[in-house]
Amino acid sequence: xxxxxxxxxxxxxxxxxLVLHHLEREGYGVLGVEDGYAALRAARDIADILVLDIxxxxxxxxxxxxxxxxxxxxxxxxxLSARGDELDRVIGFELxxxxxxxxxxxxxxxxxxxxxxxRRNGDARSRAKVRRFGRLEIDEDAREVRIDGENVAxxxxxxxxxxxxxxxxxxxxxxxxxxxxxxxxDFGGNDRTVDVHVRRLRAKLEEPxxxxxxxxxxxxxxxxxxx
Length: 227
Description:
Blueprint: E1 5-9, H1 13-25, E2 29-33, H2 36-45, E3 49-53, H3 61-71, E4 77-81, H4 86-94, E5 99-102, H5 107-127, E6 130-133, E7 136-139, E8 144-147, E9 150-152, H6 156-166, E10 173-174, H7 175-182, H8 192-209, E11 214-217, E12 221-224
Parallel strand pairs: 1-2, 1-3, 3-4, 4-5
Antiparallel strand pairs: 6-7, 7-8, 8-9, 10-12, 11-12
Helix pairs in contact: 1-5, 2-3, 6-8
């Protein structure tokens, strides 16, 4: 599916750039990252498919896949490894990987595998773009938030702010970063706007339903706490 966004998580710069070059030539949008934490952020935010090296610094590819599965993210994964160990392949598939390629590999073959995975997974992914956190559901396609199946009416900016926070569970996000993601870099207000919108979210989500979803980090920002 040309035009899809492919994230390549590979700490070897030469391999990463080679793969990105071949994928871009095929018309895909591409982003290269070099550690596990960056792979998680990109997979949550923009990836239609994640090309994921097992041996990443920070957290390894297995932990990235494990975290995405636990959070309910449906991004397809093509795993890369310098090791041909059968156990690695078994673990990868058990964690939800769609395919597995051992190094060294042909970039043309990898591109073909990416294309095949997207063809198999594209429709299912578009039908089920729902983030689930216990009683809370965020339906991105419908732009709806539900708790215990009940729709919660949020204003557009409240919804966007909640989605940014929930896309990074457990991650401390500064007010400036939240503004950049939810309002845009050209926002002309001040960072206290975030505080106002968080209060509104709490009034609509936490107080009526007893869910403490957003944790205040005094002097810094906020963190989404999984219910």
